[in-house]
Amino acid sequence: MDNIEKQPSGVSFPAGLDDFRAARDRCAHACRRFNSMPEDATPDVRTSLFLDIIRPARNRKEDGAITHDMTFRDPTLKALTPFVKPPFFVDYGLRLRVGGSTFINRGCFIMDTPVADVTIGENCNIGPHCTLVSVGHPIHPEARESQRSSIGKPITIGDGVWIGANVTIL
């Protein structure tokens, strides 16, 4: 990843390179598996499939810790993974951090990058069909043509934020 360049407007990176394409393909496969799980999947299955999207190289023995479902029965517990309803779509997933007590409703799209963090805090509620876009491109046509790169910018959503249905965050 020597082709990454910091700029005041974000971090420029050549998304078409093989390593970036492989990262997107890995994440797309993980999202397909998550989105194919049955509605009545156990919390352990849901947790494992979600973590395959955002932390594929993790120690899987730690997956079955405290799930969001357990906190409904015992409010003194703190969930380690969010409750996410499919379908859920992410481009890379590798720099996505979501608080364990957060709820993400159906149809969420997170267009993330391998060069900028997307952070969603604790106790957040994200309504259906929301989109978070942390990637962009040069505005001027000449720059887009000559650079052929994408620009990653971080997104940070603090604790306790409620985002209503159909919101787009750039």
From TrEMBL:
GO MF term set: O-acyltransferase activity
Top-level taxon of the source organism: Eukaryota
Any coiled-coil regions, as ranges: none
A Pfam family hit: Hexapep_2
Name assigned to this protein: Trimeric LpxA-like protein
Species: Neurospora tetraspora
